[in-house]
Amino acid sequence: MGLTVLSLPIALVAFVVALARRHVVTVGVNEHAELVRLARRARAWRVGGLLLGLLLGGLLLLLGQRVDSLGRITALAPAALGAGVLVGTIVGELTARPAVGVRRAAVVETRTVRGLLPPVRTGLLALSALLFAGVLGAGAAWGSPDSLGRAGRALAEQCRVVVDGALVETASSRGPWPGSFYAVPLAVALGLLALLVVAALRAVARRPRPPLQSLGLDSTLRRWSTGTILTAATFTVLGTLGPVAGVMALALGAADCPQGLGQVVVRWLTLGVAPLAVVGAAAALGGLLVTPTLRVEDLPRPLPGDPAPVGAPVR
């Protein structure tokens, strides 16, 4: 909960920055009419999915502890928000179809998901997913049953310490620990999210092309949709990684026995990853709240030969 509270001002700053740097493309009132209609429909579904995800994620954060006081349901809040955005994107792209009876011409091309992926965002998502998989793997490998026998919820250790000049065998167990008790439901949730990401990217790639004069704007809209999909996935991964890494770092920092090289490395790694992941998730949330937009001018653009405001004809 502390990391969640810390992320709120960061998310606000990210929202302001995203709003200031928002991409806006302006078209004339009579330009690209069919594509504008489809873009507005897709955006409406995407915004609806975002609002639904925010609602579900907020409910999991606020009410999850009442259903499961151990935090497994609360940990799924970022996945709920990301899934809402992805489902809204999929529905919007699949229902974005040209009007019946419209005569269309299209170029001969092969659109692939790989061709739509922006390198920077794709690399950031891949790195975040790799770090998260490593943290969950270490947690599952070192997890032990807690005092009630719940597998993977505690970190147990056993060693010999010197007490009053004598070598004494000691053992301890502390938690919560992000072992299999938490790692399994998180892995399942993120696995389902990965399927939604693939489905959303395929829906964007397979959406029918508009008339030839709108191809440039259509490519821009596809890049925007792809960026939103990757941002939603990145938010989910980082928003889950931050708290998990923080819990792991705290548990490893309270060790009573000497730690091996692997545990020391993981402890310092998670100490650095936890705040960075929270900051990254807050920035991604700001990006989701302020997506690029298509603006339509209220008045049609003047045609050649029409009188200009200063009295000279437009050429």
Key phrases:
transmembrane helix, two-stranded parallel ribbon, 8 helices, mainly alpha, 315 residues, transmembrane, disordered C terminus
Explain this structure to me?
The chain has 315 residues and is mainly alpha-helical. The chain has one domain (2-97, 116-141, 184-296). Helix content is 62%, strand content 8%. The strands form two sheets. A two-stranded parallel sheet has the order 1-4. Strands 2-3 form a two-stranded antiparallel sheet. α1 packs across α8, α2 (33-67) packs antiparallel against α3 (77-94) and α6 packs antiparallel against α7 (215-253). It is elongated. Mean pLDDT is 80; it is low at 310-315.
Quickly describe the structure.
The chain has 315 residues and is mainly alpha-helical. Helices cover 62% and strands 8% of the residues. It has 8 helices and 4 strands; from the N terminus they run αβααααββαααβ.
Helices and strands in order:
Blueprint: H1 2-20, E1 24-27, H2 33-67, H3 77-94, H4 113-116, H5 119-142, E2 155-163, E3 166-174, H6 180-206, H7 215-253, H8 261-289, E4 293-296
Parallel strand pairs: 1-4
Antiparallel strand pairs: 2-3
